[in-house]
Amino acid sequence: MESERGKLLPFYLVVDVSYSMQGKKLDAVGRIIPTIVDALAKAPILSDKVRFAMIDFADDAQVRLPLCDLLDEHIVLPSLATRGGTAFGAPLRLLRTEIESNIKQLKADGFAVHRPAVFFLSDGEPTDPGAWESAFTDLTYYDKEKRQGFPMYPNVIPFGVEGAVPTTLQRMIHPATGSKPMRMYLADHNQDPAAAITTMAEILISSILKSGQSMAMGNSGILLPPDEDLPGGVKSFGADDDFV
Amino acid sequence: MSTTVSPSSLGRLGPMIGKGGQAQVYLAPAVGFPDVPSVVYKKYRPGHSPPGGLDQLVARRLRLDPATRARLDSLTAWPLRVVADDAGVHGVLVRLIPDSFFQDRVLPGGDAVRSLRELQFLLIDPARASRLGMPAPTTAQRALVCRDFAAAVHLLHKLDIVIGDINPTNAVFRLDQRPTAMLVDCDAVRVRGSAAVVAQLDMPDWEAPERLPSQATDLYKLGLVVLRCLAPGAGGSVSRDLSRAADVLDREGRGLLAAALGRDAAARPSAQTWGRYFDRVLAGVSAPVPGSTTSAWRRGPGGTWIEVAR
């Protein structure tokens, strides 16, 4: 047995709070974590399996909820406000330092840790072209043989609504290939973006439940819901899918 | 007696009261049996109906003498009839889980909900359970739940059943009247000597050392139920650390638990042995009157439970 205290799957919810998110979209983002808390209240043994963090970003990125057990008594859920542009690089750089220090901490506390999962929600095109790509490589590149890169690299699942450009988000699916490729989720064109964000919270919860209920000690962690179970208004795409 | 009814005989279905990956559950107010008046229709999703064998489970119940059948119905939500027609199996009728196994509560987000009191709520930190609007039973109440859980396992084993997937979402408990437990998801059981109705998958953290499900792996998992119910708290749903229960079990109980969680399948205590153990430990302990404040209990000399005034 790897660890008597169990093996945890850390989820990082990264949300865009650039000015374009103002209004109903931001409200919908603000309701994501409380909805997850209620889902955990119905399946509380998942707290022995999963941890959550929330990072928001605009021109900069901030940890709004440090990695935690969401059913902990003393959690204060963050309030969100819009600010600035849409620099994808900022949260990607912050993720690398957060993931590294969080995993070290969990291991020091006696837990084994699954590969983290990052759900990355945006409604726009990055305002830092040329910069975010290298931050993404720093976060996700790892060569096992040469031991180069970031061994704690996360699985990345992009979520796009409204103005998000599918071909940009598609480049952030990680891993894009291999035995367990990730996917991205896009709201339909005619879908109300706030409703799409709520739908994406459902997908996230479904992934949490599915992963938590199937994670054995040796299992690799995150599972995404099968496409036939997706709520309406949102579609999933792989890294090789074309957009019509 | 026929083990099968047709979908058209169910009459008008009531509202959907639950759904999972495999099935949707509807009230079936037009259907009822003299010994089980309130039933629900568990309708398998397309492609998820079991390959066969449900008839055998239904027939086994129908062949029981009335007293044993009543006991089976009080300890489990056993398949009462298969719902099938020429196109195949559509679902099963099972008893409606009684109200006493449900809890009205308010979720952290403010929504009022009615929740099944799944065994998983016994495994978490009791203070957390209270905060989530669920009960935080005393050790004696937990022991009573374990005792009846063992009674359910014993009854099924006596009937030559292998339960397979024992996990904390497949059983529910109540504390009022008399604390007890009930197995609610019985499609994964099988008759010893035949294949499972549906694949007997292990829930992670509930696997036994042997890969193939058998009555011996059921007994291992019963040991996990005892350990995890009696020693709740952070990590409680994944722990196999016997020392967590050292403070609540006497020497005999600790010995039984060590044997239950051992690799030697033949040495694991039977469910009946567990039941008798809890009967002895709980002798003289009566269930609290509903609505009264709960008492604390500690173990006295010889392993008997002594009520402690708070």
From TrEMBL, chain A:
Location of the VWFA domain: 10-208
Signal peptide region: none
Spans through the membrane: none
Matching Gene3D superfamilies: von Willebrand factor, type A domain
InterPro entries in alphabetical order: VWF_A, vWFA_dom_sf
Record's protein name: Conserved protein YegL, contains vWA domain of TerY type
UniProtKB/TrEMBL annotation, chain B:
Domain of life: Bacteria
PROSITE patterns xref list: PROTEIN_KINASE_DOM
InterPro entries associated with the record: Kinase-like_dom_sf (IPR011009), Prot_kinase_dom (IPR000719)
Domain Protein kinase per the UniProt entry, residue ranges: 11-282
Protein name: Protein kinase domain-containing protein
Organism: Actinokineospora diospyrosa
Taxonomic lineage of the native organism: Bacteria, Bacillati, Actinomycetota, Actinomycetes, Pseudonocardiales
